[in-house]
């Protein structure tokens, strides 16, 4: 689905991501793990062209999309569910959702909303309320639903468990597992080891902007040098 090679992102003289190569396959959740500041968020933003790439090639859905800008990548089927959810708290939940289908005509936006409401009955019931009135877990659900509004083949998720209660994390895990089961690919930046173990088949470990380990999640967590250094104990 997505193959990235040789991705390097620098901010001035600071190289935040260096020579990263990764793949994400349909129907699977691929983890990106690592300590704070390791370059996880920058990797996602680099894929989407939201930060300047110094180098890197991207193949998505069988096509070279290296030169595509963010808008073209979204239209091609890549969606971002950003760190800290980034909802507009004073806007209605429905208007927040509609931002995920920005650029589409009224008919398509309506169809996508209906599909969202069919999946998330509780969101339909509260669609007119300001998004800021929801709990953290509900806001994360809306942020994921907003990403799905662009009808993506690949969703880039940045720390969806952040700040949530264990129960809410489990609910988000169920939601993401269901989305993957429908064939959507996901790249998941996550510090919550339990969630990674539940969702991810394979993962990449980043340290100081480089991939330092990768492979099946169980093997990564069994490797003491990897788990001690970067992942914390379960
Ligand atoms: P966290 O879990 O804390 O979000 P992360 O692994 O996502 O960490 P990044 O946010 O990708 O890490 O940051 C990687 C490095 O790049 C850090 O040293 C950070 O300070 C730097 N960096 C990120 N964004 C910028 C920017 N816009 N300008 C300058 N430096 C940046």
From TrEMBL:
Limits of the ABC transporter domain: 2-233
Keywords from the named record: Amino-acid transport, ATP-binding, Nucleotide-binding, Transport
Database matches in InterPro entries: AAA+_ATPase (IPR003593), ABC_transporter-like_ATP-bd (IPR003439), BCAA_Transport_ATP-bd_LivF (IPR052156), P-loop_NTPase (IPR027417)
Stored Pfam families: ABC_tran
GO molecular function: ATP binding; ATP hydrolysis activity; branched-chain amino acid transmembrane transporter activity
GO biological process: L-amino acid transport
Sequence similarity: Belongs to the ABC transporter superfamily.
Protein name: High-affinity branched-chain amino acid transport ATP-binding protein LivF
Chain's gene name: livF_3
């Amino acid at each position: 689905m997505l193959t990235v090679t040789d991705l390097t992102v620098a901010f001035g003289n600071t190289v935040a991501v260096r020579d990263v190569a990764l793949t994400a396959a349909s129907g699977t959740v691929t983890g990106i793990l690592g300590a704070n500041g390791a370059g996880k968020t920058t990797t996602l933003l680099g894929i989407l062209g939201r930060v300047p790439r110094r180098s890197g090639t991207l193949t998505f859905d069988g096509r070279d999309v290296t030169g595509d800008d963010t808008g073209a990548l979204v239209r091609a089927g890549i969606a971002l569910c950003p760190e800290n959810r980034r909802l507009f708290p004073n806007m209605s939940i429905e208007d927040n959702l509609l931002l995920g289908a920005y650029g589409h005509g009224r008919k398509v936006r309506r169809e996508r909303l209906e599909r969202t409401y069919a999946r998330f009955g509780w969101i339909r019931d509260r669609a007119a309320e300001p998004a800021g009135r929801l709990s953290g877990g509900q806001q994360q659900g809306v942020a994921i639903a907003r990403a799905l509004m662009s009808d993506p083949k690949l969703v880039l998720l940045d720390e969806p468990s952040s700040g949530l209660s264990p129960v809410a994390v489990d609910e988000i895990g169920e939601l993401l597992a269901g989305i993957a089961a429908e064939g959507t690919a996901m790249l998941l930046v996550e510090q919550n080891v339990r969630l990674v173990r539940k969702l991810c088949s394979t993962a990449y470990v980043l340290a100081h902007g480089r991939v330092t380990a990768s492979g099946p999640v169980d093997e990564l967590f069994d490797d003491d040098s990897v788990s001690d250094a970067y992942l914390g104990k379960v």
